[in-house]
Specification:
2 copies of one chain form a homodimer. Chain A is mostly helical and about 325 residues long. Chain A folds into 4 domains: about 10-70, Orthogonal Bundle (Annexin V, domain 1), CATH 1.10.220; about 85-155, Orthogonal Bundle (Annexin V, domain 1), CATH 1.10.220.10; about 165-235, Annexin (Annexin V, domain 1), CATH 1.10.220; about 240-315, Annexin V, domain 1, CATH 1.10.220. Chain A has helices at about 10-25, 30-35, 40-55, 60-65, 70-80, 85-95, 105-110, 115-130, 130-140, 140-155, 165-180, 185-195, 195-210, 215-220, 225-240, 240-255, 260-270, 275-285, 290-295, 300-310. In chain A, α6 packs across α8 and α9 (about 130-140) runs antiparallel to α10 (about 140-155). The radius of gyration of chain A is 21 Å and the shape is elongated. Chain A starts with 11 loop residues before the first helix and ends in a 6-residue tail after the last helix. The model of chain A has no long low-confidence stretch (mean pLDDT about 95). The interface of A and B includes residues 118 and 154 of A.
């Protein structure tokens, strides 16, 4: 469930007016900005952008970029983009980054629905005049590339039907493929890269039944190999995405320097989807509410914005 | 250009009535069927199916299947399906066939536009409750699988922009990848499987300029390897699809037993698109019109139907 608190109706013209006042003149009224966009869903934000453009002949996102700064600016920018376009931007940033973080690519490919992933790929075409596939392929190599390109390319079947005997058969293939000295990358990529999520979840469950341990447990603690790390993230994103994101938040805030990009990414991307479940899992695992952790690790308008998106009024 | 001769307006109710008379009672009036469906475009055929279903509470395609037989039935069945659904069926037939003919898979993946290919994948989901990707992956192996799965998975950028220095760089990579003793499958699959068609055509042209010979020429006469054969078909389908299909028709009709499936496939799939160009190339290459060849190699209602789709009145 979402944590975002948004009204049922749109007030695009009034909202655009408030935002216009907030960005005009000397100084910027960040609180006013948060009081509007922190309580509007994707459709309403899009309508606000349109109303703002029509009434003031400028792009609201560009205006925000020139008025705001730092982590707050980044969070607002990402929040204001349409979801598919936002994922396209996040993927591109991940690929261009010096410390390339391919987890974002795996998250987009494996957590989004097949149709959402397709929308991201369309947005990527529109924005970069290239395909997501070619950029992922260009920046990677070997089996790691095979897995990542397969994940972003595939248009999985989205139905709930599963084939139980196939699940058993492929759990067996994965067990042999992963646990041997020589990993069978080809079969692993084939299964993870083409089967439907429902079928893969059946396969992972069958794995646990047949081998007495979860497939992710068998992958952890293995050699420090980028293929295996990507494989682990892939399975986690498909099998238990909320648990996966609760862990991303934990890892981001339990280091010397908080990884604010990761925090922003999870909150902004999930506030309208399943942040409630992620919050609960975070709390259970860390004996601390996510709000409390964010309160400790962030500050200023950035903090106020994230806390708003966490919908604290909802508990 | 299309060869199909279709009226500007729809006469779906009247058409459905004529077809109803043609299939009712003892015997079937094949000529009447050809006189209608042989002159209707995809939108009009869809409207006829809908009108027929509404007025007579039965599926026209199913009725055709029970009334017709042999190659004529197959051609009518394929012609009546919506284009994306037809390609989904053709792909599935190719995969289930004992003498698996992967050319059809390559044709669908490389000749259709990126958006058309996506529509085929959606139709495949709907019809088979699986993805095209997983079925292609299941029936193939090794580098051949890597290429084929990449081709059907990818959502290429569809724009016309090209990067000339990239074309030169990748022509060089392909030259080295293909001509060495050890083929670099990985880079070949990356380039062919992810770049836009405009970019690939620029790369193939650059190849010819830099190495004095076309890339397809360098692939022909090589070892009898399924990967290389697939690679050749891929390049031909991207670079010169009409020439490729003229050759498919030539090959289908220049053997002891005419490959009627291949003939049907090309005519039915291209009558509304570019069969005029294919006809011209066929004639130039074989010193014989395509109509004349089909007249020689086929017979009966099947022949009459194909000749109708060839739009002979247009010359």
């Amino acid at each position: 469930m979402a944590t975002l608190i948004a009204p049922d109706h749109s007030f695009a013209i009034e909202d655009a007016e408030v935002l216009r006042k907030a960005v005009q003149g000397l100084g910027t009224d960040e609180k006013a900005i948060i009081s509007i966009i922190g309580y509007r869903n994707a459709v309403q934000r899009k309508q606000i952008r349109q109303a703002y453009e029509e009434n003031y002949q400028e792009d609201l996102i560009k205006r925000f970029e020139s008025e705001l700064s730092g982590n707050f600016e980044k969070a607002v920018y990402r929040w204001m983009l349409e979801p598919a376009d936002r994922d396209a931007v996040l993927a591109n940033v991940a690929l261009r980054n010096v410390t390339q973080d391919y987890r974002v690519i795996i998250e987009i490919a494996c957590v989004d629905s097949p149709h959402e992933l397709f929308a991201v790929k369309q947005a990527y075409h529109l924005r970069y005049k290239r395909s997501l596939e070619e950029d992922v392929a260009l920046h990677t190599k070997g089996h790691f590339r095979q897995l990542l390109v397969a994940l972003v390319s595939t248009y999985r079947y989205g139905g709930d039907e599963i084939n139980a005997s196939l699940a058993s058969e492929e759990a067996n293939i994965l067990q042999k493929a992963i646990n041997g000295k020589h990993i069978n990358h080809e079969e692993t990529v084939r299964i993870l890269g083409t089967r439907s999520k429902a079928q893969l979840n059946a396969t992972f469950s069958q794995y646990k039944i047949e081998y007495g341990t979860s497939i992710t447990k068998n992958l952890r603690g293995g050699p420090d190999d980028e293929f295996l790390a990507a494989l682990l993230a892939t399975i986690q994103c498909i099998y238990a995405p909320q648990k996966y994101f609760a862990k991303v938040l934990h890892n981001a805030m339990h280091k010397v320097w908080t990884d604010k990009d990761a925090v922003t990414h999870v909150i902004v991307t999930h506030a309208e989807k399943d942040l409630k479940e992620i919050k609960e899992l975070y709390c259970k695992k860390n004996n601390m509410t996510l709000e409390h952790a964010i309160d400790k690790e962030t500050s200023g308008d950035y903090k106020a914005f994230l806390i708003t998106l966490l919908g604290t009024q909802n508990g």
